[in-house]
Design brief:
3 helices, 57% helix, 3 strands, rod-shaped, mainly alpha
Length: 149
């Protein structure tokens, strides 16, 4: 009597087909996934830059000019981590222009982040109006104190 071989088992051809199929599927989905991760990191870094810009505007509201001195900002920063660019781990570049009346925050990485005064005009306008009102209040108090003497 002849014994027939059992057909249970996997052939090399079946394994090869599975490996090729897995490679094709991963080549379709991995690039999309990595792009999503990069985009999320960029959005996170941009949000940090916006928080730093809000801190600069808060400083402007109380001092009448912007600053790029970290020591001046640390007192009003919610977290000193805002001074660090999450994309590179380095510090943000804060440039003050126009005699302290404008700012530009830039950060390097695969994508450049740039945020300036004009990008945040509504917030800047509020800070500017608060500064003007505060200066007017100081002028009025000074005028009253001169009249009162």
């Amino acid at each position: 009597m002849r014994r027939l071989r059992s057909q249970s088992g996997v052939t090399y051809l079946e394994i090869l087909i599975l490996v090729v199929a897995a490679g094709i599927i991963s080549s379709l989905f991995v690039p999309r996934w990595t792009e999503e991760v990069k985009e999320q990191r960029y959005e996170s870094a941009y949000a940090v830059a916006e928080q730093l810009a809000a801190t600069l505007e808060s400083y402007y509201a109380s001092h009448g000019n912007f600053t790029n001195e970290p020591d001046s900002l640390t007192a009003i920063l919610p977290s000193t981590d805002l001074l660090i660019n999450p994309l590179t781990g380095g510090e943000w570049n804060i440039e003050i222009m126009n005699a302290g009346q404008e700012f530009m925050i830039t950060g390097e990485g695969r994508q450049r982040i740039e945020l300036q005064t004009e990008d945040r005009w509504p917030e800047f306008k509020q800070a500017w109006e608060a500064w003007v009102a505060y200066q007017e209040q100081l002028r009025q108090e000074a005028a009253r104190s001169r009249r009162g003497r």
